[in-house]
Structure formats: structure tokens, C-alpha cells
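Exercise: predict the fold of this chain.
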Amino acid sequence: MPKQKTHSGAKKRFSLTATGKVKYARPGKGHFLTVKNKNRKRKLRERSYIQGKNAKNIKTLICE
């Protein structure tokens, strides 16, 4: 059986931490930033982690 290829879109959007968590950037920081207040934009800067079944699916896409 051939090896599974890395999903190009997932590779660009997600990364794994040393402990195996799936890290991603929060959406909503692209445009229309003048409408959003500074607290909201600051929270969008923080990275977030995916948990559960979704994390398992993404790990298979990025070929852990």
C-alpha cells in the first residue's frame, strides 16, 4: 500500500507542537480590521489549539 501524501492546504494552516497538539491561527485577521476593536484584534493574534476528533483528522492529513 502506498504512503499517504501530505495535504497541501492542511500543511499551510496547521502545525504540530512538541507535545502533539494541533496549532492553528484564528480566522478573521485578514481584512475589515478597522471595524474590529483592539481587544478583539489582540485576541485574534493568539494561536489556538484543536482538540478531539478534529485534531486526529488533521494529524492524518499532515502525516504526523
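Check your answer against the key: The chain has one domain: 8-61.
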